Amino acid sequence: MKIFSALCAVVLSFAAPAAFGQELVLSNPLNVDRTQEVIEVPLRQVLDHLHLDAAQAAAIVAEDAATHQRIPDQLYSGTLDAPPDKLLLLVKLPAHGKERISFRLDPNAPKPPPLVFGREAPERKDDFAWENQQVAYRIYGPALEATGEITSGIDVWSKRVPNFVIDSFYKRDAEGARTHNPALSYHKDNGVGLDSYEVGKSRGCGGTAVFADGKLIVSKNYTKLHMLGDGPIRFSFEVTYAPWNANGVMVTETKRITLDAGTHMNRIESTYTFDGAATLDVATAIAVHEGAAAEFPVDGSIASVWDTPQIPSAGRISTGLVAEPNQHAKTVNAAGHALMVFTRHSGEPFTYLAGSGWSKADMPTAADWDNYLKLELDMLEHPVAMRWVKR
User: Residue 244, class by beta-carbon neighbours within 10 Å (0-12 exposed, 13-18 middle, 19+ buried)?
Assistant: First the structure.
C-alpha cells in the first residue's frame, strides 16, 4: 500500500505541470525600461489557458519562468460587488525586453507583501488616505465638511522612505495636539516626510470641476465611498459627490481612483451625470500656488507644475496630469490651475493620471518630473504586449 501511494504521488507530481503547459510572454515595445508596472490579464483568459475553473483562481501563483522568482499578483474586479475578472501582475521589463511567466497552483502560498495601503481616518474627521511606497494622498469626507472645511481637492503627502506613513502621520499629529507639541505635527518633516501641500479650496493634485466662463465650479466633500481593491499591488476605491449647481445645471460626480504599486500616479476615472445640457466642459486640475510655474510639455496630454509647498524648507512638490490623446483633452492655464478640459455628455467618463513627486525624494528637478510624466504617457500609448506560448 505504501509503495502504491508513493507511486501515485510521483505520478501526480508529473501530471500537475501538464495542466500548466502554457506560459505568458510579456514584451515591452518601448526603448526604455519599465521599472515597475501593474498589468491586467483577463482572468478568464488565464483560466482557459491553464484549464482551471474559477474556484481555483485564488490558488494561482505566478513566477518568472527563468528564475522561478515569484511575481506579486492580485485578483481584482473592476466592477463594484462583482467577482474578480482580472489577474494583476507587478512586472519589470527592460527596454525592448521580454519576460516569460509560468504558473502553478498552491493554495497554501503566502500572499505577496502589501505594496499599497489606505484607510478611512475617523480620528481625523473622515479623511480617506492611501499610499504606495513612493507617494501618499488623501481626500476629505462628510465629517470634515460638517466643521465648515469644504473641499473636494486631492491632498499630497511627501515622503522619502518606502514605509507606509499614514498611520504614523496621524498618530504623531494626534499626539502633538494632545501634548501641545507642534514639533510632532505632520506638517513638520521628521526625516520621513510631511504634509506641506496646501489644498484649501483648490483642486489640489487632480481634483475635478465643471469649467465654465473661465471658472471652476466644484462639489463639496465626498458623501459615499466604496472599496474595490485593497492590495497587495492595487488600491482602488470609488467616491460619490452630492449633486451641486453648476451654472444652472445640477450635476453629480462619481470618481474612481486607483493607485498601483511602483508609480507616482493615480489613475482616475470621473463620470458626471446631469440634466438640462447636451454636454458640459468638465476638468481635472492641479493647483498652481504662488511662485510656482505651470507647463504643458505635450499639448493636450501632459500638464506639469513645479510647485511651492506651504513650508519653504520642504523643497519643491511636483504635480502632474497625463491623458491619452484618445481622451481629447485641452490643456489650459486658468483659474489658478493647470487644467485638462474634457467635453462630455452626461454619463460619459473621462480618464487621466494625476500624481506628485518631491524634490527631497526621487524627483530632484523639474526636468526629472517632466521626463517621468512623458514616460507615463509613452507607457499608456504603448502598453505591454501579451501572448501565450507552450512551455
Answer: middle
pLDDT score for 6: 42
Strand order through the sheet with 34-42 = 34-42, 86-93, 73-76
Chain centroid to CA 203: 17
The DSSP call for residue 221 is S
Contact 125, 208 (CB under 8 A): no
Per-residue pLDDT tens over the stretch 293-351: 899 999 999 999 999 998 888 999 999 999 999 999 999 999 999 999 999 999 999 99
| pLDDT at position 355 | 98
Q: How far apart are CA 82 and CA 79, in angstroms?
A: 6
Whose cell is 484549464? That residue is 51
Q: pTM for the complete prediction?
A: 0.93
Q: Is the pLDDT of residue 105 over 50?
A: yes
Neighbours of 294 (CB within 10 A): 21
Residue 39 to residue 56: CA distance in whole angstroms:
21
3-class DSSP state of 296: strand
